[in-house]
Amino acid sequence: MRDERKAEHKAKRGEHRQPTAEMKADHQAMQDLILADNFDEQAVRDLAEKMSQRQIDRRVEMMKKRHEMMNILTPEQKAEFKANQDKYIADCAH
């Protein structure tokens, strides 16, 4: 499963470095709204909501993949993983 994800990520690596057409359109829309004679709050809200929804969709997909990976662990492995995560968080807090 991990190798699959790694290969998938590697195949998409170049795509992430280049903004998608959708991202370019959003950037252009932001510029148009900023440069407009009058501030259109509803248009800004609509654009922000659209961009936020795509971010949420990406996060959900990422969490889904992580869940699939964690779900194959035994209870002992999950406990060990959690302990390692807790230690990492504690170490970062200092």
TrEMBL record:
The keyword Acetylation does not apply. It is found in: Periplasm. InterPro entries: Cpx_auxiliary_protein, LTXXQ. Residues 16-26 have a biased composition (Basic and acidic residues). It comes from the Bacteria. GO terms for cellular component: outer membrane-bounded periplasmic space. Residues 1-26 are annotated as: Disordered. GO terms for molecular function: unfolded protein binding. Keywords: Periplasm, Signal. Belongs to the CpxP/Spy family. This is Periplasmic protein CpxP, modulator of CpxAR signaling. It comes from Aliivibrio fischeri (strain ATCC 700601 / ES114). The gene is cpxP.
